[in-house]
């Protein structure tokens, strides 16, 4: 199936989110028309004002509750592609089965049910998460698309109302992606569109929202917190810059020191532990992605936060 090219119309669900705003921005800059789903008119108008330089290229559809059957019926009308990012990511993962798991899984199912009879949509991109791949393993594991977080699925099935928020989030992302692929495999012969899923890890980078999100606060806190010497320079884990989605870690301290902020500690040690790695070759081969370094991502995040402070 050919790629969906500008000036096609793209639906971005949860359009006022951290990642979604960057998606909307890049799509508009590339010449696409964009429709975003939001939970209220005030949020939709805020996005329209933010991207007012693109005129009528952006519009929005109000979806107050993604768990309701038919919630996306109106939003999908006349679009050529759908990028599904709407899913709860609560601060500090505080929440319940009803507020974390149910919206993620049922919201995905409802969207796909709405899309089943679409005659215009050619591609659906579901934003999953690296946590949907996590599982017990020996050090030095290479993650691939064959990995699934079966443990999280098992736990939420056994005791859905007794799990902590973080485990509910892991299960929600795992089971929502499974639901997407199950739907696609069962109906693909009668669908006009293809399904693609992306599994980004921790997302860093400059924010476009008015207030910092969890990842931006994490960057700020870690950059300005003095740690014991044996903890400085520890492996950052898997992460992605919000502007291009990737894994790579290097030069963090050089980039932070370039900001010339005395409060940022400048000591570091090398972490020699065996690391897990993700196999990103498919994304590189098919999409031709090039990636920002963690240092650049951290630097730009802090710079954006500092600029917001000076504007208050």
TrEMBL record:
Transmembrane segments: none annotated. Keywords: Oxidoreductase. The keyword Protein biosynthesis does not apply. One of its GO terms (biological process) is steroid biosynthetic process. GO terms for molecular function: oxidoreductase activity, acting on the CH-OH group of donors, NAD or NADP as acceptor. Residues 11-210 form the 3-beta hydroxysteroid dehydrogenase/isomerase domain. Belongs to the NAD(P)-dependent epimerase/dehydratase family. Dihydroflavonol-4-reductase subfamily. This is NAD(P)-binding protein. It comes from Calocera viscosa (strain TUFC12733).
